[in-house]
Structure formats: structure tokens, C-alpha cells
Amino acid sequence: MGEGSKPLADAFFSYYGKVFEDGALTAREKALIALAVAHTVQCPYCIDAYTQDSLAKGADLEQMTEAVHVATAIRGGASLVHGLQMLDGAKAQMM
Questions:
Q1: Where in the sequence is the signal peptide annotated (predicted)?
Q2: pTM for the complete prediction?
Q3: Are 69 and 39 in contact (CB under 8 A)?
Q4: What's the pLDDT tens digit per position in 9-56?
């Protein structure tokens, strides 16, 4: 992406790199969060990258699987809550 605008690509990748450094959260914790988010946004490239990154940063299969289950619960919960829109619409039409 740097071919079209190297300054913007450089700025993004500088930011991206800083985000994943140790801070209040460890780099391992951030990799697990990224793995969960990758599943939520369904990015196969990100899933592969953060599977490898999580392993490289010391996460184990149990932690990675639990992160995916957290993403699944949040995604499913969001769908369920959006069901209220259906409920409200159905109630309005049935009155």
C-alpha cells in the first residue's frame, strides 16, 4: 500500500507496531485480542498471522481457543441483541 502513499503507509505501520508493543497489556495479551478480533471480522489473513503471533509470544492452544470463544460469545450476543429490532418491528406491525 506504500506505492500509492508511502507517508501514509509508514505512519500506519509505525502506529501499528507501537500498538502491539508491551504496555498496560503484554504483547502476548495483545496478540490474543487480535486473534479474537480477527475471528470476529472474519479476516483469514489476520487469523493466520495472529495464530502464529500468539504462539510466538507464548500463548498456548487453550488460551487461543478461549479467545476465539470470547469473540464468538460477543458476536453471538450482538446478533441476539439486534433481535430486539426485529421484535420491535414485529410488534409494531401486529398492533
A1: none
A2: 0.85
A3: no
A4: 999 999 999 999 999 999 999 999 999 999 999 999 999 999 999 999
Residue at 65 is within a domain:
yes
Domain, as residue range, for 49: 23-94
Is residue 31 included in any domain, yes or no? yes
- Is 42 inside a domain boundary? yes
Instruction: Report which of 35, 45, 42 is spatially closest to residue 67, judged by C-alpha positions.
Output: 35
Domain CATH code at residue 35: 1.20.1290.10
CA 63 to chain centre: 15
Residue pLDDT, tens place only, 62-79: 999 999 999 999 999 999
3-state per-residue secondary structure call for the chain: CCCCCHHHHHHHHHHHHHHCCCCCCCHHHHHHHHHHHHHHHCCHHHHHHHHHHHHHCCCCHHHHHHHHHHHHHHHHHHHHHHHHHHHHHHHHHHC
What's the number of domains the chain is made of? 1
